[in-house]
Description:
Layout: E1 3-8, H1 12-22, E2 27-33, E3 46-49, H2 54-65, E4 69-72, H3 79-92, E5 95-98, E6 112-115, H4 118-125, E7 131-135, E8 151-156, E9 169-173, H5 180-189, E10 194-198, H6 207-215, E11 218-222, H7 235-253
Bound molecules: NADP nicotinamide-adenine-dinucleotide phosphate.
Amino acid sequence: MTIRVLILGGTTEARQLAERLSADKRFDVTVSLAGRTKNPVPHAAKVRIGGFGGAIGLTTYLAESGTDLVVDATHPFAAEISRNAQRASAASGTKLIAIRRPGWEPVKGDRWRRHADVQSAISVIGEKRQNVFVTLGRQELAPLLTAPQHRYVVRSVDPVEPPLDLPDADYVLARGPFDVDAETALMLHHSINVVITKNSGGAASYAKLEAARQLGISVEMIDRPEFAGDAAQTVDATLSMIDHWLDSEANLDV
Length: 254
Ligand code: NAP
């Protein structure tokens, strides 16, 4: 029997999970991407792109595609699709497993302040002009407009279009993983003294925090939205949860 799996993706973990499950003949794997990046990284599975139309649309998709298992492997800040996955799973009776990488924790030498949202982070930087390195999603940059006194260096995978209506903003296009030496060089080159970032967790984008620590640069850290429910922290733990679920399903069939 083939087990149809829908992986809600957009993360490294989703890609790795798709690769591991696709290598196992029991699974027929589809990865779903929102379509935010122009050239998504290739996946070792079928890929569908675009929203489902809310929880109701996702419920319909699960029924029509005969999906047996949904894995929510979306980014920790993608709260809406995670909520929709929980609702659609409950409405359709489709098994849901979630994977959330752990958040970063400050270590000795870090100069972090934590914030519930980007606006709060921008507000505390103050009136005096600062050189601010911004690593946020393109959709999250609007609060920068409320503090045009700063100089911004904004890094993103795809261009910020249209550019922000700010007197002094530079744009850096790059896709992780990033290393500490390059992050240090970038911060020195732009005389950065504040970093604004989200607590995404994971290794690929941690280097900026290490570079900031070494340079004594302060970090305005946006905390994650709340996630209701259990989640595996790693791809291996997710695979174990899937095995455990399959074992319990097999026992029910006896
Ligand atoms: P979001 O706010 O939670 O979702 C907004 C809407 O986008 C959802 O209601 C859904 O539309 C659609 N959507 C989101 N993820 C989808 C997916 N994997 N497949 C199909 N539709 C999806 O999400 P977001 O924060 O904009 O993130 C979008 C995607 O980028 C996610 O896949 C996430 O894993 C990835 N990502 C996000 C961040 C971040 O910081 N937010 C960082 C890296 C990667 P419908 O309601 O029409 O179904």
